[in-house]
Amino acid sequence: MSNLIFGIFTVIFCVIGYYFSWKYWTKDNYKIALLLLLICGLALRIYTSTDFFLHSWDERYHALVAKNLIQHPLTPTLYNNPVLPYDYKNWAANRIWLHKQPLPLWIMAASMWLFGVNELALRLPSIILTTTGILLMFFIGSYFVSKKAGYLAALLYSINGLIIELTAGRVATDHIDIFFLFFVELAVFLSIIFAQRKKTIFNILAGISIGAAILSKWLPGLIVFPIWLLIIIDVGNFRPREIIVQFFTLLITSIMIFLPWQIYIYHAFPLEAIWEASYNFKHITEVLSEQTGPFYYFFDKIHINYGDLIYLPLFWFLWKTIKNRNDKRRLAISIWFLMPFLFFSFAKTKMQAYLLFVTPALFIMTADFWLMLYEYRKNHKLKWIFNFILILLIALPLRYTIERIKPFEIRDRNPQWVIDLKKLNERKIVKGVLFNYDNPVEAMFYTNLVVYPNLPNYKTIAELQLQGYIIFINDNGEIPADIKIIKGISFVNICIAKD
Hints:
4-stranded parallel sheet; single chain; 499 residues; 2 domains; mainly alpha
């Protein structure tokens, strides 16, 4: 019941905050309007992130690797100390874990080092980044269209349900895509500042941000380069030689950020690095983990993630781009969306968050379309139709936000299985192995045990006991008699994790 009260309070708080933010926006008081957007956006993110358990896919893996990185930042591991043989190709049960780029994991590890190994510390960086992203969205939208459009884009960013769910780790790819979105957005913002001020330091910072994006989710971060070029050309303050010099400055800076880690892992962990590189390429040519869909998968998904009417601003904006080919700002936004959209549409493996980093472009398109309709309706007889569309462009994304954050559901946000695992960790076992627990990754996050889902045989138990390990077995009522009679085994009863 307390969760329901918390949810209702959060919704009421945000409704009031967004209302007054809108009112201040209509009066062109952008400082207070934006401040209220940030406060309400932060409230939604905190509410959704206060699930006191790890989500099953993919947050649990990122959480465990980040926890292990606290001990050895340059050796990413899933099983920190595997006592049984493992397949290095199995990213869900191996030791050296190179399945994702390291920057988000490092930052999550730093957060847990500062604030303790817990769910909120794990999610805190994503909360900070997506809240900051609201402000960046305003400045980017203001440059490409206008301050009014910047506010509307920031509003859509603030309430977007997919961003909030990923921030909370509730859906697949979670914090990794949040970091990627932020650094792409930051790189575009810094590119704008550089173009306006012509100070090389901002170009270097943009290059660092691109490198950070690549260190978050690899080469799609290169999308910033054509956007940067169009911004520079649009401003018109640069001679051709200056553009070439600054472009190579941007490129070299970004390479200096992301390349050292790639060289390091090929030297330190060659088998795993080569395998993961080939595995990443397979996302394009093969269906992995049953995550696929038709060519139009992403075209269909965007109406769920950005509102059912998203196709109206999308097609209108692309049509305006084609009609006004010399408009570099529209072209930059169109490229920001179209290049990743086409690339990932052709790829065989598909997941909804793969296109998260194009959301700023979609928000700007929607904001520009909204303002166009708002002005057009003034001289039209059927004003009510336009008013209805204007309302739906905001209300429909908001509807999906409510569905995603689930503020009116009575949910167990502090489940028994987490309590059981934490109690087990209170024993402070230095060398322990837990067998027969179906959620080993979660168990290794909450305890210091090595955990496996299967039952061991007598020989395995005997060998581990000789090595000084304390053996725990989760008793699910189906333990064979020959296992039960072995001396020195501690039988426990732990609930299975349910997301």
